[in-house]
Amino acid sequence: MKSTALISEIKPKAVGFSTFDEHFHLLDTSGVAKAIDNSPIAEVVKKSNAELGRLGYSVYEDAEYIGHAFKKAGHFIVYFTPRNKNREPMIPPVGIAN
After folding, report:
1. pTM of the model
2. What is the CATH number of the domain that holds 49?
3. For 74-91, how does the pLDDT look when each residue is reduced to its tens digit (9 = 90+)?
4. Spatial CB neighbours of 4, under 8 Å, sequence gap ≥ 6
5. Which of 92, 12, 9, 17 is nearest to 52 (CA)?
6. Is residue 88 part of a domain?
7. What range does the domain containing 76 cover?
8. Cα–Cα distance for residue pair 67/4, rounded to 1 Å
9. CB-count burial class (<10 Å; 0-12, 13-18, 19+) for 70
């Protein structure tokens, strides 16, 4: 599955997003992402840059939200979806290409 196909599945369920530039500076934010002021998401995205570069996709979870990070045209976009508390933690798909 290509990351663009995955984005089209996640985007309608998103309750917010954050966009970072190639230096991990916050460019834009909306929805619940605005309320996550002290979120370490930029640091997490930075630390997982190798995985994002290799797969084009990475997943982060906390108690309330799942962050789906994509690397596209030098920017990092993280879509936040609500976490279903009645399910097992999400395992990122393998073999996603840009």
Report:
1. 0.70
2. 3.40.1840.10
3. 888 889 899 875 555 444
4. none
5. 92
6. no
7. 3-82
8. 16
9. buried
Are 57 and 93 spatial neighbours (Cβ–Cβ below 8 Å)?
yes
Q: Which of 84, 75, 97 is nearest to 15 (CA)?
A: 84
Tell me if 10 is assigned to some domain. Answer: yes
Asked whether residue 91 is assigned to any structural domain, the reply reads no
DSSP, collapsed to helix, strand or coil, labels residue 12 as: helix
Rounded CA gap, 64 and 55, in Å?
Answer: 25
**Tokens 């993280």 belong to residue:** 78
Q: Which tokens in the block code for residue 21?
A: 């530039």
Residue 87 lies in a domain: no
Contact 30, 83 (CB under 8 A): no
Specify the number of domains making up the chain: 1
What is the distance between the alpha carbons of residues 67 and 45, in angstroms, rounded to a whole number? Answer: 10
